[in-house]
Design brief:
With about 425 residues, the chain is α+β, with helices and mostly antiparallel strands. Helices cover about 35% and strands about 25% of the residues. It has a six-stranded mixed β-sheet with strand order 1-2-6-3-7-21, with helices on both faces. Strands 10, 13, 14, 15 and 18 form a five-stranded antiparallel β-sheet that branches. α2 packs across α4 (about 110-130) and α9 (about 330-340) crosses α11 (about 385-405). The two termini are about 30 Å apart.
Length: about 425
Amino acid sequence: MRQRLAEHLERHRADLQRFAAELIRTPSPSGDEGAVAALVAAAMRDHGFDECRIDEVGNVVGVIRGSGAGPSVLFCSHLDTRAPLDPERWGHPPLEPVEQDGYLLGLGAADAKGAIAAQVFAASALRALGLPLSGDVIVAGVVMAERSEAFGVAHLFDVTFGAMGLAPALAVMGDPTGLDVYLGQRGRLELELVTIGRTAHAAAPGLGVNAAYKMAGIVEGLQELAQTLPSHPFLEKSTVALIDLACAPARVSIIPDRCVASIDRRFLPTESLDTVVMQIQSLISRAAEKDSNFKAEVKVRTVLETAYTGIAREVPKLLPPFLTSDRHPMVVASVEALAALGQAPRLDKWCFSTEGGYVSTIAGVPTIGYAPGEEKYAHTPYDRVRIASLGEAAHGMAAIALAIAGQAPGREAAREERP
């Protein structure tokens, strides 16, 4: 079976590369993924998926149906890309795929269009070869991951899967892992802290209360907090970082009465959301004890986002942390399936946060990562995926699918005997 898969994917290696290049060439900024969704859906239909649907928010879902006797596996990647920062720093137009030194270069190559291509071709290989499946093999491309955390993936699990009768027992995320198996990540939370003052003419600052000056103690407190945060033996250290400061009304000769700090907090499964927020609240309380004129408030940032289909929702800027045990039977089966191909994946974790946090923690589905892209190239002008890794990833994904959803001897018979 492994040999047949290898031969099939080798015959279609050039097709896989062309599809990855076409995905890169198709613009898909967050909130405008319609063209790439249509491209992925067309590929699924062309490759014989049993079902293909674009749901209400624009997610693409394709299914290779099994008999229903065994567990199903989900391969999930996000369709969108961030806008390229400083396009002049790229050595080529970001949306023009370029082959160079064994890599395919272009916006989203690493995160996660190379993964989408490999996932589609992995599932299609199972269909083309007629390999028996007990569970379903699901491939999903979700929207707005780069901008809105769990906007697309939440709808996928909360609405679409139920409507399609799908219930994955394992999720394999396509965020870059360099062909290693990733087991988790720290969570990400964006907090908005506002200091409140009183406006006055800048020529008479004593008549006002400068909100920017009131923020100074908070900034110092954040630096102190960063030194006290806990560490984890696998996921490493929690972090806190000030990522933006903005004053209002931000006009010439006016003392600002609002100063807004955006705070990025990466946190561990051992830290609760309440604890994380209270740490920042304690900075406010400490400042208020020292200054009777100090006023501030903090909250989890929420944003109103609209999908390309027109559906709008309030989305909290939050992705939970997660860690899947390396002893989980499906992790063991996946790693063994990759080892049988001659791959030697390390067990590692993402430095950044992915929608795996929602899938694992909120949806409750055991989650790993396995993809051809490398994390170090994501969101950089050097965005690329190793061409050989595309085929290796497709082969590995097909092997994982068979390890989880493949029809074991006697499984179908056992199902038929059930009353």
